[in-house]
């Protein structure tokens, strides 16, 4: 087992052990946010035939080249074509057909005159404009033709993709499976929120934060509850979690006598890949793989902020890779520090910051209390400013990278255009 | 009824008729993405008492001011405090207590020596460093005290908020209700995706796109199916939709003889507020309110792109306002055009574009086919470039506002720091 990796080394190590999950077939209407596991080719044309893009009249352009508002041309309305219907017969010279948006163009017709450019009366219509060639005609296959690739495998499906899938008759679709994540907390001091009255106890808030982080990443959390500080209790929980793709335990991986997780993991046939990442918060992170099941195991530190940040940096990219995402990482912006920051060289620091925009630039202010126990500091921050391992501090006004955690950060209160 | 509003006027008109929905109480673990409808004040302290931030030894600092690696000070280990347990007695001068992360600080102790800074042997521990005042002690109430406001009403709840709610013992929480949206399509040419073989028919893809857009916005879609082009069929569907907060119909609002929706709406006691918005795509938008139920009714145009874009610009902000969001709007970035664009003055154009980053700037290229029937163009674009009503065109290199629709647009393939 390696010890004391850099953030970069640790991230590479966890992603190296991560495979994209196999495919499953789900209802198209449930597929938003999932990654397509097949290539979608069209088996039909859209529109299936030439059709009208407007409500108006189907005409033969050659009849109407001289038409204008000053000298309209009057033609008989010989039939009507509704959307979803077939034309009764072909259109002959000197004729017009009433037509509606989406209705198939009758044979013989080669342009549509918009209703607004006509006057109709007693079975005849006066055309007030000369049509351009194929004006207001949607060509068969304009949206897509037979055999066109509509959506490439690996695409993240959004609302318009679901519409496009429906339009080629696909009511089910193949996407990558969602990972399951078994979550446990460890510690005799921990209780569930409904038992929070005892002053010697602390609510196991990590399971709430981590389950929500799993869901946000697209994975399915499976909460196993609080393990007591005994090898037997921890082993029972970890066994229950082996069915999952990933186990995330918080607490129990430190150096204290009461931290049993590591020992139990080794006994279970979990190959430990590394212990300790040179970062703050979050040093005591352990990562391994249960060899019999392939389950990835993350032992996160117990402090709420350390647990949340190590999940963010190591577990989230793993879950997104399993889901088939290409973009495994959060947005990053450059921001100017509003306060001088000092640190020792050695560990990479993730500092919770509030961002403000002034003069077209982001400005980052660290939240007041950076203690790893202070979960409310994550509540207040927009993201994590990154101070590299070798950095010994930065002055006011210096630029830092800030990883954006707030999912609504880029949303706007004003329309913005 | 007003006709031919600007995009801005139409947006103001729909938001003016929109109320934030009342509150409901839900499980905290399900509350991510929802807007808090109460102010969360803490009824307890976190941590509840002074406790250790490390595994190590609780000591009295005054005993150890001269300790160093060269001249360690040896003290007896008189008891042990595990997390979740109480100390047996207070710590006296010249004593140390074994202590674990999260365990309460014994009375009398005022600093923690990390395990790494000690050597222990046969009931005694050698201290290798002089502690700072209250070093590695987490003060009672460091995270929050009794009566502290932890989360303000109106906050969008994310993963750390759920952890914070749990940590104050809140297993349920009050959030704004989610709007229901009744969706119907109209047109004899439309069929569901599993009936897509008939070449005279077109799949009703709008219902898929719109339902996914509702879900993405946080609302609950309720699909009513395809209405036939008869007042009776449309009326039956609209009646079924009156239970919803919002009705979204696509097609049926244009000027053609077969467009019955407007007539039916008026008959149902729907006060029509406006018809027609000076935009492209999407001019024939109708908006009204059913007076007896307060249901907002949007009659969107039938073309897939027009329906999707008008939903985006008018329905989505309404749904987000109902949900209690402050940020009603999508992110907007400035981008440089890679192609010359021309248009007529009069309507605001939303042009689907692909964005690329070069030299730290965004560059916007319109997708090839801007026909409002071409849903696949939305699939390919990252967002909508905005060309104002009065604009008659822009040169290559000119700056435009681009509204970002792709939810993954800011995510990164590389870690970025």
Describe the protein's topology.
The structure is a homodimer of 417-residue chains.
Chain A: E1 2-5, H1 7-16, E2 23-27, E3 40-41, E4 51-52, E5 56-59, E6 73-81, E7 96-99, E8 111-114, E9 118-121, E10 124-127, E11 137-138, E12 149-151, H2 159-167, E13 172-176, E14 180-186, E15 190-191, E16 202-203, H3 205-217, E17 220-227, H4 231-241, E18 246-250, H5 261-267, E19 270-277, E20 279-280, E21 286-290, E22 296-300, H6 304-323, E23 332-337, E24 341-342, E25 348-358, E26 361-366, H7 375-380, E27 383-387, E28 393-394, E29 399-404
Parallel strand pairs in A: 1-19, 6-7, 14-17, 14-18, 15-16, 18-22, 20-25, 23-26
Antiparallel strand pairs in A: 2-13, 3-12, 4-11, 5-7, 5-8, 6-10, 9-10, 19-21, 21-22, 23-29, 24-28, 25-26, 25-27, 27-29
Helix pairs in contact in A: 1-6, 3-6, 4-5
In words, what does this structure look like?
Two copies of one chain form a homodimer. The first copy, chain A, is of the alpha/beta class and 417 residues long. The first copy, chain A, is built from seven helices and 29 strands. In chain A, the strands form eight sheets. Chain A has a seven-stranded mixed beta sheet with strand order 1-19-21-22-18-14-17, with helices on both faces. In chain A, a hairpin with a 5-residue loop joins strand 21 and strand 22. Chains A and B meet through helix 2, strand 16, helix 3, helix 7 and strand 29 of A and helix 2, strand 16, helix 3, helix 7 and strand 29 of B.
């Amino acid at each position: 087992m390696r010890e004391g990796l850099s953030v970069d080394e640790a991230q590479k190590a966890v992603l190296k052990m991560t495979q994209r999950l196999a495919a499953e077939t789900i209802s198209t209407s449930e597929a938003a946010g999932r990654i397509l596991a097949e290539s979608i080719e069209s088996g039909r044309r859209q529109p299936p035939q030439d059709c009208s893009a407007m409500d108006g009249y189907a005409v033969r352009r050659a009849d109407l080249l001289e038409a204008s508002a000053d000298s309209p041309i009057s033609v008989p309305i010989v039939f009507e074509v509704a959307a979803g219907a077939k034309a009764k017969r072909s259109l002959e010279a000197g004729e017009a057909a009433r037509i509606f948006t989406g209705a198939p163009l009758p044979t013989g017709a080669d342009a549509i005159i918009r209703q607004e450019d006509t006057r109709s009366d007693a079975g005849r219509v006066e055309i007030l404009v000369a049509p351009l060639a194929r004006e207001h005609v949607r060509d068969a296959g304009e949206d897509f033709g037979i055999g066109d690739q509509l959506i490439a495998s690996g695409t993240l499906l959004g609302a318009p993709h679901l519409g496009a899938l429906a339009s080629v008759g696909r009511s089910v679709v193949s996407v990558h499976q969602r990972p399951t994540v078994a979550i446990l907390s460890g510690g005799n001091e921990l209780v569930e929120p409904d038992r929070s009255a005892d002053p010697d106890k602390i609510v196991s808030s990590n399971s709430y934060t981590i389950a929500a982080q799993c869901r946000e990443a697209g994975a399915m959390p499976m909460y196993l509850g609080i393990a007591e500080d005994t090898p037997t209790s921890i082993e029972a929980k970890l066994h229950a979690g082996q069915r999952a793709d990933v186990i995330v335990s918080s607490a129990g991986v430190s150096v204290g006598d009461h931290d049993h997780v590591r020992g139990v993991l080794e006994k279970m046939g979990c190959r430990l890949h590394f212990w300790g990442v040179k970062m703050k918060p979050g040093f005591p992170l352990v990562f391994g793989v249960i060899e019999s099941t392939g389950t990835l195991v993350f032992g996160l530190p117990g402090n709420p902020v350390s647990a949340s940040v190590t999940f963010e940096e190591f577990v989230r990219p793993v879950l997104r890779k399993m889901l088939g995402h290409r973009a495994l990482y959060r947005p990053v912006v450059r921001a100017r520090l509003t306060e001088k920051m000092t640190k020792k060289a050695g560990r990479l620091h993730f500092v919770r910051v509030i961002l403000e925009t002034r003069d077209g630039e982001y400005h980052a202010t660290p939240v007041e209390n950076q203690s790893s126990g202070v979960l409310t500091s994550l509540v207040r921050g927009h993201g994590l400013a990154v101070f590299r391992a070798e950095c010994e501090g930065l002055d006011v006004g210096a630029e830092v990278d800030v990883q954006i955690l707030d999912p609504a950060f880029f949303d706007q209160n004003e329309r913005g255009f």
